[in-house]
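Notebook entry, structure prediction.
Reason for the run: the old model in the group folder had no record of what sequence produced it. Starting over properly, with the input documented here first.
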Amino acid sequence: MSENGTGKTVLITGGTSGIGKEASRQLARAGWRVVVHGRDERKGRDAVEELRAATGNGDVHLLLADLASLHSVRKGADEFRRRFGRIDVLIANAAASPGGVPKRRETTDGFEFFFGTNYLGHYLLVRLLLDLLLASAPSRIVVVGGRQMGAEFDFDDLQMEQNWKPFRAILQAKLGMFCMTRELTRRLTHTGITANVLDPGMVQTPYHDGAGKVLRLLIRLLGTSPQNAAETYTWLATSPDLARVSGNLYSARKVVPFKGQAADDEVVRRIWAESARLVGVPEDIEELGVTDLEGERTR
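New structure, fully documented this time:
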């Protein structure tokens, strides 16, 4: 296996546009087999064709799945396993934006839309592919989070039936991604699988089209390009310096502390257990086949 990543496989959720597409482009240029996830077949096929042409890498593929549907996520994970058989890096990047969602809505499974799509869909996908990540170890999970802005779980109203606001819903989903990464790190010690989360900051992508005028102006003036933001994705996926590094939050390639509930071990473990219950998988990862590389079960 060459040092530039040839022979390795990456799955990038939301890889048909924005930062995910740019990260797909960079990794394809480095010789990786890139599996681009999307939910729109036509858009996905166009993106794959463009990436193949732009990089000269024919080993770019499309995986269709709707993160808003647990059935679709399970089907997508099964298809990935059947078609590709290994995964060296999973980049959990996809996120539905608040634009076009002016009032509370639910996924097909009855979850608050952003919590179900941006967080629970990823939680289930990661859980279903953990054994494949283990078989491919050393491997990495790269989770895309966002600004830590005081988000909190109300465990009596996780689905926000009482107090829904789009910005609050988005932040709760991002908090879930932070907590998932921290608990993965604890449970995957000694497995050869690392998990880190990144805050890409303000990026000039269509994701923010539905934001307020002030935020859109700030992003237009101060935001970085998708190409620059994607370099951090690629760095976390490929840097030899991070081969054994796990459980960190990165902003501009610097480690920053987790804050609030994301730093609260009790909250982290509680949301992990509740997420497992909601998506219908065992709380313990051992029950899905993940064990310590040295033969001991992961604690």
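Summary: Strands lie at 9-12, 33-38, 60-64, 89-92, 139-144, 193-199, 249-251, 254-256.
The old model has been moved to the deprecated folder.
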